[in-house]
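Reviewers of the previous submission asked for a worked example of the structure-prediction workflow described in the proposal, so we include one complete record here. The input consisted solely of the amino acid sequence. No template or homolog information was supplied to the procedure at any stage.
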Amino acid sequence: MELRQLRYFIKVVEHGGLGRAAAELGMVTSALSQQISRLESELATRLLTRTATGVVPTDAGIAFLRQAQLAVRHADNAMQSARQARLTGHVSVGLPPTTASVLARPLLYAMRERYPEVRVHLVEALSGHLGNMLNARQLDLAIMFRSDAGHRWSVLPLLDERLFLIVRSGTADLPPHGAVRLRELGQTPLVLPSSSHGLRALLDTAFARARIAPPLVAEVDGLTVLMDLVQHGFGGTIQPGAATARLGDQPFDIRLVRDDFLHRPNLLASLSDDELSPAALAVRVLLAQVAADLVTGGHWPGATLHKS
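From that input alone, the workflow returned the following structure tokens.
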């Protein structure tokens, strides 16, 4: 027996008919009738008598109605008490710069709406630095791109990101339009993060696999400066789609890199469950929900939810 079935039954008795009750509940009459029939089957007794003008409760239905109303009222009171006992506390969340570009603002808005009494400390840093902060217990949770099995972290695969070539509009030595492959970028000057960055390690492996060594003209670990150099034609870059979230109408040529093996996993890492506060546990769930909503809503370019 489900709480919603009790609500359905009460509404049918109040309206004296399935059709009127279904209209208020936003259901089709046949679906409501099926729910009532299941309830009667579970109780092994008839609760309603069908008449020419609607339905009326049987003697068993009248007795059940009183208890159903009491159960629903208690359930409503319990939910209200839970809402009033709001979570409080302080939670530290780490996001890499590209991820922060698309996730930070929606997460903070969702936190303000869902858990207004929880204060969030948001840290934007390279994935490797976030891992060190997590180990030092300076963060409760963080988005990571790699996970070290030696750490006592709780790790949830979150999503996968395809990578994009981003260059100034009109850049020469590129295919005329559409997606590109790494092997087509041998003459494209690139501005990339340094070797301490997880994305750089991923790209170095991919370039080696494609057997090319594109000209590297600068190493920059700050996303703002890196994109400023690209905008002014200093060189192109390869970044996940999240890096394009704030580009707006600026003159960039953005091409999907279509090598199937080139993608970046996003992992939601946190301290072990027994180390997390109730507030941190709640924020971990909410962060995963916000990320999923962004992906399914088409607001995270090039991202797909992890298959698990």
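The chain has a mean pLDDT of 86. We consider this example representative of the routine output the project will generate in years two and three.
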